[in-house]
Amino acid sequence: MNLLYLTIIVPLFSFLVLVSLGRHIRSINVMIIGVTTMLIIALIAVFCCVDFSSNTVPDTTLIYTRQLWNWFSVDNFTVPISLTLDGLSLIFLVLISFFGFLIYFFAACYLTLRNDIYTFYAYSNLLIASILTIILVDNLFVMLIGWEGISISTYLLIGIYYKQARNGYAAVKAFIIMHLTDIFLIIGIFLLYQTAETLSIGDILTRAHDNLAVDSDIIFWITLMLFLGAMSKSALFPMHSWFSETTLAPMPAVALMQSSTVIFAGVYLILRLSNLFMMSNDTLAIMTVISSLTVLFASSIALVQNDIKRIVTYINLAQISYLFYAFSCQNWNLSLNCLINYTVTSTLLIFASAILIRNCQGERNINRLGGLIKSFPKLYIIFLFIMLSLSAMPWISASFYIKGDIIWGLMAKERLMAGTIGLLGILLSSLSIWRLIFIVFHHKPKIFDFAKTKPISYYPIFILVVFTTAIFIYFPLPVQGIIPIAELETNGQPYFRLLLAAVILLSFLISYILYAHPNSEVQEVLKAPMFKFFLRLCNSDWHYNYLLHTLFVNPYIYLARLLKKDPLALWDDWIMRGIKKVNSFIVNLENGQIRWYLVSMVIGSIIILMLLIFI
């Protein structure tokens, strides 16, 4: 664990090398630099796991701290640069290194253009360094460095194809949206410092537990600001827009942003401060509402999309909400298992979609594809495994137990509406992936010219497929004493699992009727006004972008045009003109006539005297 600082230094140094010299290095060498960087981080993570397990004493919490230096000091306020490793940060370190290595390896097999290769590895290294800064530092002020680094890295990755105006606009949009909620995070940090008089996370949790009352006003505002600050990084509605813009980046970059780095930032912040969030039931209730809106929004939009990238993106967005459902019912250890399952499934879905698009010569519209089961049987089987995980296939997939326990936890907390929406989200996500499978693999063939994919590209996919099964339901996680371990109510849970299995079987039946062999009666039902309205609403992303432009963009443009002529400068010009007029009048009074001067002096004296007498 003495080499822990290298997990940040190595990717940062690699980023600087590739940004400076990447254009002049051969593509194969750039790939070697990128993959080797991630391999070093993975090896350090393995060494840390070995050290951690060998030094852990039963019924104790092992916390390793490495003090590096003091950044700055103002009076009694000191900001130290130190790295801290405990069970929670070790889990995130392992996840980032493992999935980062798989994504880097997949990118080496997938990317072909020279500019794509060096820009992807350069910007991804900055992203890895930023997220590792967040999970390893023990000071909220220093964490802001990694927080800002993630925003910059996301901007760079989305804007890799910056010569296209649409991509540049999307990168700027993502950068702005991420910074809108960063304001709330900074406010929350200020409130924490004012209350606890420290920014050390360990000291904050201790002092908050000792000095603050549960559900007090200050706790509510602190946790609310922190949650709002984490919303954009976690892509929750309505701060999800940057998540859909990631589709403009190369698929390995999409995998990195959607599954194993950016999303981790907001999730880690809430998990690290979980003892603080447990003290505010109102914030947890708001978290439930936001999660429900995100599930409905994302899963309904995924159901009508035709672009493979957008289908994948909105399916992943819907799955993120189950993490925050687990937070809202205070089942923190279950949320970690949900995070692992989400990362596996989303990465697997993006990899499989990337190979599908590559094989079909870059075609992304599912309506222009069909009959691929004969050409790509191996890819078809992979999508079936993805379907099993997204649909929470009863007793086969790990997500059946994890999502089932999350929704059961909501029901046990008497949040029936949120639990019902959670079941609906599983139903709609299942329909979305079945729709993709039926149209792409079973319908009439429409494309006959295919590209070849390197067999080595499938290796990361085969590894991930294993982790979607029920063999890996719950990982043994070393979080005892770090996050609260909740006991799940088991009375009635077997009956609920039967209900969940029935919902999943219903989704299979509906998808078969709608997408496998749609007949004339189904077509008539789909042409009903209610369904047409639903399709238009979902195809327009619930008119969210229109609402965003109406409320924020258009008023900003109006003010910009109004201020184009600089009203303050015009006002200043009128003042100067008035001064000139007064000056010219006074100058004309200097006519050289002594009588006029004497009369002016007398009149002025009389006026001053009258003022002294009557005022």
UniProtKB/TrEMBL annotation:
<dbReference type="GO" id="GO:0042773">
    <property type="term" value="P:ATP synthesis coupled electron transport"/>
</dbReference>
<dbReference type="InterPro" id="IPR001516">
    <property type="entry name" value="Proton_antipo_N"/>
</dbReference>
<feature type="transmembrane region" description="Helical">
    <location>
        <begin position="174"/>
        <end position="193"/>
    </location>
</feature>
<feature type="transmembrane region" description="Helical">
    <location>
        <begin position="458"/>
        <end position="475"/>
    </location>
</feature>
<feature type="transmembrane region" description="Helical">
    <location>
        <begin position="594"/>
        <end position="614"/>
    </location>
</feature>
<feature type="transmembrane region" description="Helical">
    <location>
        <begin position="30"/>
        <end position="53"/>
    </location>
</feature>
<feature type="domain" description="NADH:quinone oxidoreductase/Mrp antiporter transmembrane">
    <location>
        <begin position="138"/>
        <end position="428"/>
    </location>
</feature>
<feature type="transmembrane region" description="Helical">
    <location>
        <begin position="90"/>
        <end position="113"/>
    </location>
</feature>
<feature type="transmembrane region" description="Helical">
    <location>
        <begin position="416"/>
        <end position="437"/>
    </location>
</feature>
<feature type="transmembrane region" description="Helical">
    <location>
        <begin position="248"/>
        <end position="271"/>
    </location>
</feature>
<dbReference type="GO" id="GO:0015990">
    <property type="term" value="P:electron transport coupled proton transport"/>
</dbReference>
<dbReference type="GO" id="GO:0012505">
    <property type="term" value="C:endomembrane system"/>
</dbReference>
<keyword id="KW-1133">Transmembrane helix</keyword>
<dbReference type="Pfam" id="PF00361">
    <property type="entry name" value="Proton_antipo_M"/>
</dbReference>
<feature type="transmembrane region" description="Helical">
    <location>
        <begin position="495"/>
        <end position="515"/>
    </location>
</feature>
<dbReference type="GO" id="GO:0008137">
    <property type="term" value="F:NADH dehydrogenase (ubiquinone) activity"/>
</dbReference>
<feature type="transmembrane region" description="Helical">
    <location>
        <begin position="120"/>
        <end position="137"/>
    </location>
</feature>
<feature type="transmembrane region" description="Helical">
    <location>
        <begin position="339"/>
        <end position="358"/>
    </location>
</feature>
<dbReference type="GO" id="GO:0003954">
    <property type="term" value="F:NADH dehydrogenase activity"/>
</dbReference>
<keyword id="KW-0472">Membrane</keyword>
<feature type="transmembrane region" description="Helical">
    <location>
        <begin position="379"/>
        <end position="396"/>
    </location>
</feature>
<dbReference type="InterPro" id="IPR003945">
    <property type="entry name" value="NU5C-like"/>
</dbReference>
<keyword id="KW-0812">Transmembrane</keyword>
<dbReference type="InterPro" id="IPR001750">
    <property type="entry name" value="ND/Mrp_TM"/>
</dbReference>
<dbReference type="Pfam" id="PF00662">
    <property type="entry name" value="Proton_antipo_N"/>
</dbReference>
<feature type="transmembrane region" description="Helical">
    <location>
        <begin position="218"/>
        <end position="236"/>
    </location>
</feature>
<feature type="transmembrane region" description="Helical">
    <location>
        <begin position="6"/>
        <end position="23"/>
    </location>
</feature>
<dbReference type="GO" id="GO:0016020">
    <property type="term" value="C:membrane"/>
</dbReference>
<protein>
    <submittedName>
        <fullName>NADH-quinone oxidoreductase subunit L</fullName>
    </submittedName>
</protein>
<feature type="transmembrane region" description="Helical">
    <location>
        <begin position="143"/>
        <end position="162"/>
    </location>
</feature>
<feature type="transmembrane region" description="Helical">
    <location>
        <begin position="283"/>
        <end position="304"/>
    </location>
</feature>
<feature type="transmembrane region" description="Helical">
    <location>
        <begin position="311"/>
        <end position="327"/>
    </location>
</feature>
<feature type="domain" description="NADH-Ubiquinone oxidoreductase (complex I) chain 5 N-terminal">
    <location>
        <begin position="71"/>
        <end position="120"/>
    </location>
</feature>
